[in-house]
Amino acid sequence: MFRISKFVLRISFLISMKPHKDTIGSKMGMWLFLLSEILLFGGLFLLYSTYRYKFPVDFHHAAGELDRVVGMVNTLILLTSSLTMALSISSMQRGNRNWAALFAGATFLLGLVFLLNKYFEWAGKLHHGIYPNSPLLLERSKGEVLFYGLYYAMTGLHGLHVLVGLGLLFVLFIFIMRERITETNFVVLENSGLYWHLVDIIWIFLFPLFYLMT
Q: What is the pTM for the complete model shown?
C-alpha cells in the first residue's frame, strides 16, 4: 500500500511540473514499477497454485459459489476500459484534447462501475457470513478457508490498484482540460495508461483462477 501511495504522489508531482523532456527515463521508471507489481502478484499466483494443488476438491467447491456472470461482466468492463484508455492516449498524440479527455473520463467511469460491481459482490458474501475468520467460514474445510482468504486478499489488492488508477484518471482528466498535458507532453498520460493496462491484465488472470476453474 505504501508503494502505491508513493507512486501516486510521484505522478501527481510530475503532472504539476513544467513539461518534462526525459521521456525515456520516465518510461523506464514506470516499467520498473510495473515489474515490481508483477512480482507481487506473481508471488500471490504462485501461492494460489500451491494451495489449489494441495486442496483441489475444496477449491473446486468454493469457486462454484462465486457468481460467474458478475466476474464476466467485470472482465468485459475492464477490457473496454483498456480500449478507451488507449484511445485517450492516441487522441492526445494527434492533438485532439477534447476526445482525449472524453476517453479518459470514459475509462474513469468504467473503472468506477467495476468497483461498484465488486462492492456488491463482496457485500453479498459478507451478508451470508462468508468472510475471513467468520464463524461460518471456519466451520468449512481448510481448503475452502484458504480459497476465500486468497479470494479476498487478491481481489481486494487488485481493487486497491483500480482505486489508485481512478485517482490518477481523475487528475489526468483535469490536467488534460487545463492543457497541462498536450500532444508534445503526454508522457504522464502514457505511463498512466501502462499502469491501467497492468491492472486489466492482472484481472484477466484473477477471473479464470477464481471464477472459471471449478
A: 0.86
**C-alpha to C-alpha distance for 15 and 135, rounded to whole angstroms:** 48
> How many whole angstroms separate alpha carbon 120 and alpha carbon 211?
16
Residue 77 has, within 13 A of its CA and on its CB side, a CA count of 20
Residue 149 CB burial class (10 angstroms; 0-12, 13-18, ≥19):
middle
Q: Nearest-CA neighbor of 114 among 148, 66, 82?
A: 82
The CA distance from 96 to 176, in Å, is 10
Please, is 103 exposed, middle or buried when counting C-beta atoms within 10 Å of its C-beta (0-12, 13-18, 19+)?
A: buried
Predicted confidence (pLDDT) per residue in 91-116, tens digit: 999 999 999 999 999 999 999 999 99
